[in-house]
Amino acid sequence: xxxxxxxxxxxxxxxxxxxxxxxxxxxxxxxxxxxxxxxxxxxxxxxxxxxxxxxxxxxxxxxxxxxxxxxxxxxxxxxxxxxxxxxxxxxxxxxxxxxxxxxxxxxxxxxxxxxxxxxxxxxxxxxxxxxxxxxxxxxxxxxxxxxxxxxxxxxxxxxxxxxxxxxxxxxxxxxxxxxxxxxxxxxxxxxxxxxxxxxxxxxxxxxxxxxxxxxxxxxxxxxxxxxxxxxxxxxxxxxxxxxxxxxxxxxxxxxxxxxxxxxxxxxxxxxxxxxxxxxxxxxxxxxxxxxxxxxxxxxxxxxxxxxxxxxxxxxxxxxxxxxxxxxxxxxxxxxxxxxxxxxxxxxxxxxxxxxxx
Amino acid sequence: xxxxxxxxxxxxxxxxxxxxxxxxxxxxxxxxxxxxxxxxxxxxxxxxxxxxxxxxxxxxxxxxxxxxxxxxxxxxx
Amino acid sequence: xxxxxxxxxxxxxxxxxxxxxxxxxxxxxxxxxxxxxxxxxxxxxxxxxxxxxxxxxxxxxxxxxxxxxxxxxxxxxxxxxxxxxxxxxxxxxxxxxxxxxxxxxxxxxxxxxxxxxxxxxxxxxxxxxxxxxxxxxxxxxxxxxxxxxxxxxxxxxxxxxxxxxxxxxxxxxxxxxxxxxxxxxxxxxxxxxxxxxxxxxxxxxxxxxxxxxxxxxxxxxxxxxxxxxxxxxxxxxxxxxxxxxxxxx
Lengths: 357, 77, 249
Fold this sequence. Notes:
The structure holds three protein chains of three kinds.
Chain A lengths: L3 E5 H11 L4 E4 L6 H13 L3 E4 L3 H13 L4 E5 L1 H16 L5 E6 L15 H6 L9 E3 L4 H18 L3 E6 H5 L1 E5 L29 E2 L6 H21 L3 E4 L5 E6 L2 H16 L4 E6 L1 E3 L3 H8 L2 E8 L5 H9 L5 E5 L8 H14 L1
Parallel strand pairs in A: 2-3, 2-4, 4-5, 5-7, 6-7, 11-12, 11-14, 14-15
Antiparallel strand pairs in A: 1-8, 6-13, 10-12
Chain B lengths: L2 E4 L9 H5 L5 E7 L5 E5 L10 H5 L5 E6 L9
Antiparallel strand pairs in B: 1-4, 2-3
Chain C lengths: L1 E5 L18 H14 L6 E5 L14 E4 L5 H11 L4 E7 H7 L1 H10 L4 E6 L29 H4 L5 H6 L5 E7 L3 H19 L4 E7 L3 H4 L3 H15 L3 E4 L1 H4 L1
């Protein structure tokens, strides 16, 4: 690792993409992620990369497709309404199995909503924003450092699985400054995706032509492609579930499940709950898809109550319920509109839920 | 002498070549090809001047033109 | 010793197209193939297929291809060309794809001066979905979604894409040609060759609009379609070069 520097989340996100070897970034301005674009507008030319501000998020999603289909490591950042517009291209990108990476610095919705932090795009990210049976790998950092590390990891995962990876941060992570150690490499990562010669469109010189497509008019061909995707998703589910556990040893009164910025607030709230004698632990999913279903299921056995704490009106809680399978009561605590609750509010909310259950 | 070759099973019977030919070399057949179309065929091959107009107008790249000796260039293509 | 003076270009595959009898897509495909051959671009070329009748056009070429969503081909081409500047990138788009759902991507790719070429096939109707009204549909023309004929009072007049793009300042090559008769096809090929040549020279965005026929959805024979194009479309969509890069330099 390199030396520790103080960086704004959005700028660190941009630098991380460059460190991961990415030399192509397409974007459209939207708060609260615009600093990623502004940072890379300066940085990409310095490293000989491509920076382009597209005419819309819709267009950007196809610029990603084009560049990804040409075998280059490509990146974009956007925020909730922008991701909705990109959703059109996402279905195509996932179908064509293009290894692109993008980050959603989530703001509050629905609609234009506002520009404050939220986690209400959980469904959109993990259940598929576009049409058809597909999955992005979805990772949720809870600090600027983790955002940097996960972006570097995302390019590797995208390449390994030929699958798009989406990071979901929130306005808090994008906007705050934190000390980060930027990763260093003995050999700088390639700007090209490994093995792209087999499938990418680069001009059919000395080989059979390559075709990047998503149309499968023959129903059997269409089903085969779906089965192929699902097989890959199963492999990702087997290998890539990531989470952090805090104080989950022994029996618990309550298990919190929370990610991103909300999980950091929960960490502080846990201290107050413990001070009041509550046996509280937390599981923080880092991979939202694949979701740590089995681990939550196991922890539910020794917990009186599971609470999903989110910056939304209750989205991840559905997956938590799916994990717990009715073994243990599941509660929800959340805030919307861009409000990040204080640790005390979370503590009171949890205590109320414990009383009710 | 120029020679027009029409790949009969590529032809979809649109007859654009028949109408385009300045020498009335081509005609539509009375029998059908593998796709069920009446196809174009050269019937007055000796009238052909190798101008390529039939091939240029064919939407299905079904026509090849060959010439013996020097082709008179009526136009660049 | 016979010399072949006309045959299938190397850049095309031997597959038989799925297009209807008399549909001029096939001619435009062949022109693209011939131009790629003649300029020696087969091994550098990347095509982008649209949504519409020509969605499967990659089946008829022997070059790298990506398949786009409706109207987004110019954005996809931008992504490729910006990251692979040594390739020759072209989009192949119909009038529903390009002139309706894809106008935003088209105009901005042109206005940024992306070094790509757009092959625009304008047959005044949506073909693949079964003959619906397009922005390019002629006044009074009957389609399945304007069964009484296009009413310009409610649907406006047909969109003249080439003229519209020619108003942009960014140097571009914008030309309209037709392919309904051999003499027009010969001219069309010249324009397309120029468009690709400009891209090879890294000079500008280029678009060639091909006035084309759709006998099936126009409910005409191929021969009648040719006449209809000439009588109805040609007066409204004049042929010619609307913009050349030389004007700007």
